[in-house]
Amino acid sequence: MPALGVRRLPRLSQSHRIVRELRSLNWDRRTFVRFGIVAAVCYVAWVTEQNFGRWYDFFDMKIYHGAVVWWSGGGELYEYIAPDTTLGFTYPPFAALLMLPMAALTPSAAGLFNLLFGLTALGFVLTALLVPVADRCGWPRWMTVAVALPLFAAIEPVRETLGFGQVNLLLFALIMADMVALRRGWRWAGVGIGIATAIKLTPALFIVYFLVSRQWRAALTAVGATLAAWAAAYVIVPHESTAYFGSVLWQTERVGAADMTPNQSLAGLLSRLYDTTTAPSLLWIAFTLVLLAVGLTRAAAAHAEGDELIAFTLVGLTANVVSPISWTHHLVWVVPAVIALGDQALRRRAAGRGLAARGRSTPGLREPIWFPALVGTRHGGAAVALYLLFLISPIWPYEHQLPGVSHYADGLFGMLAENSLAIALIALVAALPSRPGAEPAFGNLTTARIPLARPAAAAPRRDTPTPVAANADH
């Protein structure tokens, strides 16, 4: 029996509803125009990727594939070094067990499967985030998601994840599935974050967020899922588990130098500013603690205001900033940041139109004609600027590597461009606005909505009898 005050969940998921919406389309001229728009957006995204992207060739997937092939042949998992590189396998043993079946595939086939799974994961996340916006604005759901998918697939973190054969989109979907589960009141909320943490350690910050925001059940579920996954891996491969947690975990040099241009974390920013291969330890620790406090505090405040999307986004961005190494393909949390800023602009624009309409209908009160057009411009401009920054990714023309070339070789402008993504992440942690009372994932709220402020009732006239009892809703 559903709990008191909780709405019964719909039988069809939003993805099923989108499929049903596609099947019920009337194939008229408007429908063909919409499909033409989707096709045009896909082409523009492909051209953009060709111009601003790099040559990837499933580079990271080849390392994973080579490691599991080496391991399945009797070699030591963490002693594998990919040919012509100094890189080896850096994930926990649980991740290695999940990747082990791809040893039966070729590296290219494994990369193509990962590309398909990554696009599916991105489609799930975009469906969760955009369906409530589409419903509120009266846009076709399928077209909204279909247009957004190639647009976001073209930006730096997503195209690098897909091109390198990385797992970031899969972890992203696991974490966002927990956001959906939390807003629907499902008891298993936290399992996705727990599994993501067992695969890669950085999602553990979401467990800290659960503790800070006092979501005890989700925190315990996430911790339990992580420990269960690691325990299962220890039972199956005890030698590799001991090696990873005993030594490999602490060998930070295995992943590369902190000052490398693709590392857009705080540590990378400080390393390049000081023109050294490592960040100054005390300064990095001090700024890390400050940004952790800011990010987690703002995330807890957004949760209290009912905006779980902004809360999750802030935690993900904070994890990118404070991690010693955050390659550009790790920065997938700009996707919900762009969507949230765009949604904030739409909300403010709708509110501005409502105020203008009220002003026109109120005798003696006239709003300026330009007022509705300007409301929301600030947030909309920020969303467009953030999207274009990660689409163009201006760090690559100014890529430098010590000790060969100083990071100041191109002057102040080159230094700003080389650190532009890291600066944007820090700005988002500090200033990404929340949306009090915003729709949860999939638009189905399981707890009471935060009521919008209502105008105060006018004082009763002296000749008007006072009501005996007020309505409970007021």
Q: If helices are DSSP runs of H or I spanning 4 or more residues, what is the number of helices?
A: 20
Which bin fits the share of residues in helices?
Answer: 55-70%
| Structural class based on helices, strands and sheet pairing | mainly alpha
Main sheet overview: none
| Run of helices and strands | HHHHHHHHHHHHHHHHHHHH
The poorly predicted ranges are 1-11, 443-474
N-C termini distance = 29 Å
Protein name: Membrane protein
Transmembrane segments: 31-48, 80-100, 112-133, 139-155, 162-182, 188-212, 219-237, 279-297, 309-325, 369-392, 412-432
Keywords: Cell membrane, Membrane, Transferase, Transmembrane, Transmembrane helix
Subcellular location: Cell membrane
Describe the structure in brief.
The protein has 474 residues and is mainly α. Helix content is 61%, strand content 0%.
Describe it for me?
By secondary structure, the chain is mainly alpha-helical. It has 20 helices and no strands. The chain has helices spanning 14-23, 29-52, 59-72, 93-99, 107-137, 141-153, 156-164, 168-184, 191-199, 204-212, 216-236, 238-246, 266-273, 281-304, 308-322, 334-361, 371-374, 377-392, 411-418, 420-431. The longest helix is centred in the N-terminal third of the chain and has 31 residues, at 107-137. It is globular, with a radius of gyration of 25 Å.
